[in-house]
Amino acid sequence: MASVKIKFRPSSGDGDLGTIYYRVIHNRVVRQMATSFKIYEHEWDIGKSIVIPQCYDKKRREYLRKIQLNVNEDIHRLRRIINLFEKNGVSYTADDVLLSFKKSENLLSVFMNSLIKTLEQIGKVRTAETYRSALTSFMRFRNNKDVIIDDITPELMLRYEAYLRDRGVSPNSSSFYMRILRAAYNRAVEKGLSMQRFPFKHVYTGVDKTIKRALPLKIMKKIKELKLDDIPNYDYARDMFLFSFYTRGMSFVDMAYLRKKDLKNGVLSYRRRKTGQRLSIRWERCMQEIVEKYCTINSQYLLPIIGDGASIDHRKQYINTAHNINKSLKYIGKMLHITTPLTMYVARHSWASIAKSKNIPLSVISEGMGHDSETTTRIYLASLDTMAIDKANNMIIKSL
Predict the structure, then answer these.
(1) Residue 211 within a domain
(2) Which pLDDT score, from 0 to 100, does residue 315 have?
(3) Pairwise CA distance, residues 325 & 198, whole Å
(4) Distances from the Cα of 165 to the Cαs of 103, 133, 168, 269, in angstroms?
């Protein structure tokens, strides 16, 4: 059976970057394949054949860690190819192993799955999910037939865009997939897996302003007053929807991770997971009523969305809960004949819209949904007077 080893070839020049390469040995025949991974000699552990990510520079340290993750993935793929040859009982050479590796490396799904795995390993779970979503969509378009990265052309991407449009996918969603695929393609070009052919030059990769999904005050009142005691799932969904509205349109992920210790002296303080910004909200009786309605005695969390325990996948849990809540909210919307599809995000839009209708100054309310960029939102939010926001929030709550 063939064996695989990781080697490092120092540069002939003093202090220059060396190259990591792979050595495949089979039937006493040795073949080598250089990689695009360049490191300095002091960044290589010759005894363990691994990259040493010990560096004072944070960016360099992260770069070295990514290289080791990529090397691990390559070695895993080489051994998988060898095992496949052995399992099928076919005669093969070291050259066959490397040839199969190069061919598989050039396939879009193989390359993107490698990127996804690396993203997950470095903690970028959300980014990994978006890459997986884009790849799934594209492979569905291809009827699960893979494509060599070098064969991705402007014509192919135009056909994919037409495919998405014919299935009712919005321009923004289509653009979302295109931008992710373009990022992966550019990474492949950097790695030398393809020539740059600019395959995305004719497809839409911009961002259109979305139609605001805001509800008027009278509809919000109907949602609040709806009798749902006999339908626990709907009642729970409505409570989470109202809690978001009461807290100035707090996003569901921020609600999920609220801890009891975040509520002190009548003020709820939390850091937005999306932007890292610190926000404070005056605690109102309506918020307390929702919290008291559910038993969270043995939990560190304020709301009954995710559970405690190291073994619990919190992200997966809140995503599943969000899905179930949005499903219930849609049924509530149908019960009240609301034409706008009801989701948790509608609460955020509704708070801003109602605040605006009450002539609350734009410098006080979160008018972020109307901004062209999140940067603009952060700039004006950073200078907001918390007391003014709390006053505005109190006005809106009392209107219900």
Answers:
(1) no
(2) 84
(3) 41
(4) 32, 17, 5, 43
The count of domains in the chain is 3
Do 101 and 175 have their domain in common?
no
**What's the DSSP call for residue 242?**
H
CB 34 within 8 A of CB 25: no
What are 227-269's pLDDT values in tens digits?
999 999 999 999 999 999 999 989 999 999 999 999 999 999 9
Residues in Cβ contact with 110 at an 8 Å cutoff, skipping those fewer than 6 apart: 77, 104, 146
**Triad 383, 388, 394: Cα angle to 5°:** 140
Question: Domain range spanning residue 168?
Answer: 110-190
∠ CA 379-380-386, rounded to 5° = 120
Residues 275 and 363 in one domain: yes
Domain termination residue (choose one: 152, 173, 190)? 190
CB atoms within 10 A of CB 197: 15
User: What would the pLDDT profile of 160-208 be if each residue is shown by its tens digit?
Assistant: 999 999 999 989 899 999 999 999 999 999 988 888 999 999 999 997 7
Running DSSP on this structure, what letter comes out for residue 4? E
Q: How many CB atoms lie within 10 A of CB 206?
A: 9
Residues 173 and 316 in one domain: no
Q: Which amino acid is at 222?
A: K
- Residue 223, domain member (yes or no): yes
> Residues 126-142: pLDDT tens digits?
899 999 999 999 999 99
CB atoms within 10 A of CB 253: 17
Q: How confident is the model over 69-110, as pLDDT tens digits?
A: 889 989 988 998 999 899 989 899 999 999 998 888 789 999
Give the residue among 333, 332, 364 at the shortest CA–CA distance from 351: 364
Distance CA 153, CA 137 (A): 17
End-to-end alpha-carbon separation of the chain, Å? 73
Least confident of 23-32, 273-282, 283-292: 273-282
**Residue 148 per-residue DSSP state:** B
Q: Answer for the pair 110, 147: CB distance below 8 angstroms, yes or no.
A: no
Are residue 134 and residue 268 in the same domain, yes or no?
Answer: no
Crossing angle of the two packed helices 108-121 and 94-105, in degrees rounded to 10: 80
Contact 305, 255 (CB under 8 A): yes
E strands in the chain:
3-9, 18-26, 29-39, 44-45, 50-51, 263-264, 267-271, 278-282
Phi first, then psi, for residue 170 (nearest 5°) are -65, 155
